[in-house]
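Same chain as my last thread, 325 residues:
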Amino acid sequence: MKKRVLSGIRATGRLHLGNYLGAIKGMIELQNNPSYQCFYMVADAHTITTPYSPSELQKNRVEIIIDYLAAGLDPEKSTLFIQSQINEHFELAYYFSSIVSIARMQHLPTYKEKVKQYPDANTMALLNYPVLMAADILLYKADLVPVGIDQEPHLEVAREIARKMNQIYKTSFPEPKRFATSGEYIPSLKGEGKMSKSVEGSYINLTDSLDEIVKKIRSIPTSTEVGGPIIGGIKTLFILSEIFLPKNLYQEFKDKYHNKTLKYVELKDTLAQAIYEELKPFQEKRSQIVSDINYVKKVILDGAEKASQVAQETIKEVKEKMGLL
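reply #2:
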């Protein structure tokens, strides 16, 4: 039996560098391993937990599928689908909500952060975000979830729910584990926090041109002096440099920093060029995919059909065990 994998990205805009390094690279690695059966969704229902534009959401759902394909996700190897097209996600989330306390959800750090960020959008949907995420994962009985380390508290909720359901109702849910990648936490270009679509100026889009990347990398805050502790924007520069530059060149820039001979603009422009070279194949493939929108529509339809078959099996089992069938 193949082990299953589930991951998804919110439909809040095109994918950025943090998505690519923190999730997509892991998704591709697992897809290409014959031991796994992979389900990769566009998490559009999670998108509506914070303020959004309906028209933008409709557009972004398709854009992310295109980004998935351009990045290397293969619909012949992975099931690519849109979350809201599979009603079982919401049905299972409701069943799970019967065994999760309100207090448990209120204590999650991610919930507290979002309430601070969107004080006028403190909704039940936001509170239940981790329950829906647990349903997303456990609906496909996924063993592995390639997501960033910031999602670990949500995965712990999914494990707790799996244990409770198995204990109370004798279901057969696995306890999902996070699949970590080397770029699991990509810092913001602002020098604090992580790269995020919800924070303007913090990220590099996978579709950005060289000029746009240069401009964004040059905007990373640095001090007027070179040397001393590697913190803030300087830390961001070196984390990205370690990922994108050859080891010897990365070490050369680091030595120059400690020797106080580094020119920030030289490091920034070298890094920007390296990031662009990494993204160029993605951008070229994306241009080809965009020209065949019927292919994209077929991928979405086929993915929904495949995901639905597995989802219905799980819901049938849960309803039988809970006395609802």
